[in-house]
Each structure stands twice: as structure tokens, then as C-alpha cells.
Amino acid sequence: MKTTNQIALSQLQQPIVWISVAALAAVYGSFTLSWVIYRVHLAGLVTQAGFSEAFAPVLLLIEAIVAIVIEPWAGWFSDQIQQQKGTRFPIISLGVILSSALFVAIPVGAPLVGSMRWIIPSLLIAWAITTNLFRCPALALLRRYAPMSQLPQAASLLTLMFGLVGAVAPFGNQLIKSLGAPMTFVFAAILTVMSAVWLKVSNPPIVSLEENVDRSNQQVSIVHLALIFITGLGVILAFRLAIETFPKLLTAQLDSIHPPMIIGAMFLTLAIAAFPAGKLAVYLGNTKTMLIGLGAVAVFLGLMPLVFSDSFALIVAIGLGIAFSLIINGTLPFTLDLVFPKNTGLGVGLFFGGADAAHSLYAGVLNQSDRFSPMTAILAGIVALLIAGICIIVSKPTH
User: DSSP of 137-149, one letter per residue?
Assistant: First the structure.
């Protein structure tokens, strides 16, 4: 078993396995696209099953709350499988197969349920659970595909995919609706299966050098796990508040602008900035880069109420896209830096568990209050950024 110093020296020559990172990005992209399509068609599916359209956000809230537990558990379980069998693919494959089958069954079964209308909500929640079975175990594989020092550069491909697919919702909403639920659901399911097969085929037979370090006497830090969860909550809450609040302000302040296009521009900028963000994180350090991003987002959040022209709205959107790219691109490397290889899945699961907690907090509490004005949302976003920044500053990497 190699020592830590030997591994650190060896990692200088270890390249990023880009073909595997690309396959992982495809899995992540298909996961995100499935959720985009799901959200577009959800209201139609629940009304088709005989429920009120108001039931759709309730379902999303239930799914987010369940995911707070499911994602860390799935990550932890994949760690156990990894230690016993040397692979995470059993749970990844199970999640992909079940979620894809359910995704095809949902639009097909919706018109056929008749009096058994509760079958559809049950299928929807079951699908959400099965998607959460494979996201974190799959993303935990990034540690195999790049040395720790190059993780931000490797993660930039995931950030690129997140930004591109995120832009589909504001730019392609009407197209997705016009194609109908059956066609788009089947397309997303096929894409998920194909990307998972590509990931399995491209998975290198050897583990990264860093995974060979002898850490048998080192235990996972509860403090580190808490920092990961809170960082995920803070970052994603700020992101959610930004993309929900900016369109409301634009609608109130500008008659000439189409808010979804501005949010789409933000997502595209986030994607374009991904590779420069990765390079900057490798050069400056991931912690500094994320903190710069947090500060920049706070500034642009503060500028939102001052947007009274189309051009300034676009500038703020581009600024938010670049700043969020610096943050989001660093979240996975930040997480992996705080846990040992044997706890990689748990760490990733806790980050996304925090993200799910952020979605739940927004949908179930903040967005339900009549007093939650756009100005209050901006202030809440800045507080969330501050909390995430404190977690990043006080964290001490395990490497």
C-alpha cells in the first residue's frame, strides 16, 4: 500500500480520464433532462389523473423531502458495495433500469388508471426515488477519473452539461410540451440507459492512485459531513432564490423583456464559463475560486432591484452565470476533498441531500409566505451564500 507522499508525487503524472468523465457527464445530463421534462409535464399528468393542478407542487415538495434521506443513503450504500465488490455499478444499474422503466410507464399509464387515480402519484414518487438511487453513486465515480489536484478541471464537463440542460427549460419549454409526455419521457429514458451503458463500458479497470492510500485507521469526520450538507443547502438555496426571484423582478420592472430568455442566458453563460472556471480553480485553488464566486453572486443579487433596462438585465444574468459557474463547478471537488475514498458516495449524497433540503425549504416554507417579497428573497440568498462561505472557509481537506 502506498504512502500519502508517494501518492501525491504519483498524481502529478496521472491524467484525467476524459472519456469516462464525458460518459459521467452524459449520465448527469440525462438525469437533469429527465427532471426538466418531468417538471414541464407534471401539471398535465396530475390533472389527467383527476387531480387539481395545485397538486403538482405538493408532489415536488414530497419528492424533495424524501430525497433528503434517499440521496445520502444511496451514496453510503454504494460505498459499502464498492468496498465489498470493488464497484458501484450494481446500485447505479438498478437505479437506471428502474427509473427508466417507470419513466416510460408514467405517461402510458396516466390515461388508463380510471378510478385508481392514486396509482399515478405513487408512480411519480417511485420514479423520483429511483432516480436518486443512481445520481450520487454515479457522481462519486469522478474520484476514479481524475487526480484530486485536477478535479475542478474534470468537474467542468459536468458543469457544462448542467448549464446546457438547465437552459432547455426556459428555451425549450413549449417544444417539450408540444412533443407530448409519451415521446419526451421515452426519449429521456432511452438517453439515460444509453449514457449509463457508455459509463459502464468506459469505466477504467484500475482505480485512481489516490484510492490506494492506506487510511485504514482514519474515520470519517462528522463535522466534515455536516459542512458538506450545509454547503449544499446554502449554495443551492441561493441558486434557487436567484432563478426564481430575478424573473419576478423583471416582470415588475420591465415590460419589454421576456424573463425566461434572461434565465436561459444565465444557464448558457454558466455552461460556457465551466472550463475557464475549472482552470481558474486549478490555478488559484478551489476554495478561493468558490469564495470569489460566492462574493460575485452576492453583488449581482444586490443589483437585481436596480435593473431597469434590457441590456442591464442581460449583464446581471451573464454575471450570475459566471459567478454560479465558479461555485457549482467547485462543489463536487470540495465535497470529495473533505471525505476519504471509502466515504465518497456518502459525501456526495450529503451534498445533494443539502440541495434537496434547500428545494424543500424554498417550496415548503419560503415561497408559501405572503411576506416573502423579492427583496426578502435577495436578503435570504445573501445569507445563504454567507453560510456556505463560512463552511468553505472553516473546512479542512482530508488530503
Answer: HHHTTHHHHS-GG
Cell numbers standing for residue 392: 468553505
Question: Where on the phi/psi map is residue 174: left (φ > 0), alpha (ψ -120 to 50), or beta?
Answer: alpha
C-alpha to C-alpha distance for 359 and 372, rounded to whole angstroms: 16
Mark out the alpha helices in 203-258 (DSSP H runs).
222-253
Task: With a cut of 70, say whether residue 275 has pLDDT above it.
Answer: yes
H-helix or E-strand containing 318? helix 310-337
Among candidates 245, 250, 242, 263, which has minimal Cα distance to 309? 250
pLDDT tens-digit readout, 187-226: 999 999 999 999 999 988 765 555 545 455 567 889 999 9
What single-letter amino acid sits at 327? I
DSSP category for residue 151: H
Show the cell assigned to 146.
481524475
Contacts (Cβ under 8 Å, ≥6 apart) of 85: none
Q: How far apart are CA 343 and CA 211, in angstroms?
A: 11
Domains defined for the chain, CATH in brackets: 16-210 (1.20.1250.20), 222-394 (1.20.1250.20)
What is the C-alpha separation between 39 and 176, in angstroms, rounded? 10
* Rounded Cα gap, residues 207 and 364, in angstroms: 42
CA 229 to chain centre: 13
Residue 24, pLDDT score: 98
